[in-house]
Structure formats: C-alpha cells, structure tokens
Design goal:
Number of domains of chain B: 1
Radius of gyration of chain A: 19 Å
Strand content of chain A: 15-25%
CATH architecture of chain B: 2-Layer Sandwich
Radius of gyration of chain B: 12 Å
Shape of chain A: globular
Largest sheet of chain B: 2 strands, antiparallel
Oligomer: heterodimer
CATH topology of chain B: Alpha-Beta Plaits
Order of helices and strands of chain A: HEHEHEHEHHEEEHHEHEHHE
Helix content of chain B: 10-25%
Number of strands of chain B: 4
Mean pLDDT of chain B: 94
Largest interface: A-B, 35 and 33 residues
Number of helices of chain B: 2
Strand order of the largest sheet of chain B: 1-4
Shape of chain B: elongated
Order of helices and strands of chain B: EHEEHE
Largest sheet of chain A: 7 strands, mixed
Structural class of chain B: alpha+beta
Chain lengths: 257, 75
C-alpha cells in the first residue's frame, strides 16, 4: 500500500480507545502485567462516562496503589494504613454531594483495616469501595495475606499456606454480604476483554448506587500479581481462571433494592 | 486496506505482553528494542491485519495503547 493510500485510510479512522480524561499523563508504578493498572483505568473510564470527574474524591490505601493521587486527575486522600473506609466515610458525610470511593488492597481492606471496612459496610455507609484481591501483600514483597489460598507459596509461607497453622482464605465479600448494611456486593476479574467489560459495568453500577443515595457498594476484583506469584503475566491470568476463581467465585453476591 | 490502527506509546509499555495474547489478529509482537525504562516494548508488527477491536487497549495495564477503527462511508 502506498503512503498516500495509508494516509487516506488513516483519515477515515476514528479513535475508539484512548486514555480516559480522569487519568493524567503520569506512568503507573505497577509491575508489568499487574491488574491494578487495568482497574485504575476502568474506574477512570467510569468516572468520565458518568460525568463526575469534578465531584469525585478517591481515598487510596497503603500498598502498591498508594500513589492514586499521582495518577488520577481527581482529588485523592491518602489516609493511614487500613483507615480508608473511615476517611471515605468522613469525606462523604461532610460533603454528601460528592461521589466518594475507597480503593483498597487485601492488606488494607482484609487485614489491617478489617475493622474499619466491616463497620463501614455494616453502617451501610453511602460510599463505593473497590477491593483489589491479589491473594498476598504485593508492595512489601509477596508475604502471606488473609486472602492467600490454601497451599499457596509466599515469602512467609514457603511450604504453602496450611489451614491448620494460618486459617482459611478470608472471603470478605461473602462475609460482608451477611450484614444488613450493604446494598450491592459483587466480585469481578479483569483477565480478558469480556471480564473487563463486565467489571466496568459493575463499577458504574456501584457508583450509580451511591449517586442515587442507596448505600454501600463493594466491587471486589481478583487481581494478578505476576511478580510475587513468580509467573509471567499470561500464566498469572491463567492462575486466576483456574485456581483463584475456585475459591473466590465471580458474580454478584448481593443486590438489595 | 487495514480496518484498524493501533498505536503503542513505547515509553509507557512495560512489555508484559498481555496485548499480544489478547489480539485476535496477531498484529502485535515484542520489538527488537528497549525503552528508556529498560523494558522490551511491544510494537505492531503486522499493522495491516488490525481490525480495530480494541482488545489490546482493554487488557493493557499501562494505558499505553490507542486504537483507531475505520468508519464506514457515510456514517
């Protein structure tokens, strides 16, 4: 094809995929193949599509996603470790006109912050929580987390997690679904385009629930951590499909009207 | 005539290769070069096969990909 033909062809093309407005130009500091980046982008796309960029406040955890304020072109608060739900509660109660989301990893949400996250859910606090479950502590070097699967090898469970010594993987979403407070709890994955589309729909739904004043919404993501799992990114995606989904099944867990 | 076009920001790409896995048309390949961060970035090796589906962009964890799609005449 000649250069003119290529140029003519290009002129007829429309941009169908680009970086969302709610993210700025800073590069993510996540490792190659980490799903945090996909989830960050989906949240930013949802914010763009709902037209709430100027009225959204995020709260970031301690963990790999601690720098949300650097990457998102929205206001972000970075509370102490595990206090994200509490600070999001404060922001939302002070300014009910804003859309407030809590972004938490499994260390923040299911370990050091279990108390805060559980009570925020139980109060039916009108916030949206994104819970990123990669079955270990990513930032500090891949230690065992409460979400680690039985038999999974981590730096602090080199022979694999045993239920006898360390208990069972904590199913936060199912646990919180037992409470009367939450309105919507769902578990999603982002390892292929189909799941990514579903995950984005869940994010938008969770935001809409908050915008319509209907209470607490939680979207849990099964996220890959190729570096700490000792896998290449494609193998890590496969692991979610074959192993992690067995323990943490995908889909809506509760939806109350 | 290609039905789509994919652009990869070499400097943002971390070479995870998820886009290569996701592409149904085998458009993308690892390049022979490294970017300023030392990653072996991905490049459109067979651009004429692109159909503009956007799968590569969706799975990219680093927002490094822009996708264009050919529009039908008169639309």
């Amino acid at each position: 094809m000649s250069e003119e033909a290529i140029a003519e062809n290009t002129a007829k093309m429309k941009k169908v995929f680009d970086s969302p407005e709610s993210l700025n130009d800073q590069h993510f500091s996540y490792c190659p193949g980490c799903h945090h980046g996909v989830i960050n982008r989906l949240i930013a796309e949802a914010i763009d599509e709902l037209g709430i960029q100027d009225t959204t406040v995020g709260t970031a955890p301690v963990g790999c996603s601690v720098f949300l304020y650097k990457w998102f072109d929205i206001d972000v608060i970075q509370p102490a470790h595990g206090r994200v739900s509490a600070v999001a509660t404060g922001a939302k109660r002070a300014r009910p006109d804003l859309t407030v989301f809590a972004y938490q990893g499994d260390g923040d949400f299911a370990s050091i912050g279990t108390n805060n996250s559980t009570h925020a859910a139980n109060r039916g606090e009108n916030i949206t929580t994104f819970f990123i479950n990669n079955t270990l502590y990513g930032m500090t070097g891949g230690e065992m987390a409460p979400t680690t699967l039985i038999g999974q090898k981590t730096t602090t469970s080199p022979h694999g997690r045993s239920a006898k010594d360390y208990g069972y993987p904590i199913k936060m979403s199912e646990m919180l679904a037992e409470l009367d407070g939450p309105t919507y709890i769902t578990r999603q994955a982002v390892y292929d385009p189909k799941r990514i589309d579903r995950a984005k729909a869940a994010i938008k739904k969770a935001f809409r629930i908050q915008m319509e004043d209907e209470g607490y919404s939680l979207v849990e993501f099964l996220s890959a951590c190729p570096i700490n799992w000792g896998m290449d990114p494609a193998e890590a995606n496969d692991r979610i499909k074959k192993e992690v989904e067995e323990v943490y099944p995908l889909g809506d867990i509760i939806e109350r009207g | 005539m290609s039905r789509g076009k994919v652009e990869i920001d070499d400097d943002r790409c971390k070479g995870c290769g998820l886009c290569i896995e996701a592409c149904p048309q085998d458009v993308l390949e690892f390049s022979d070069d490294f970017n300023s961060s030392g990653y072996n970035y991905v490049t459109p090796e067979n651009p004429e096969d692109c159909i503009g589906c956007g799968f590569c962009g969706k799975v990219c964890p680093d927002v490094a990909i822009t996708v264009y799609k050919l529009q039908k005449e008169g639309v």
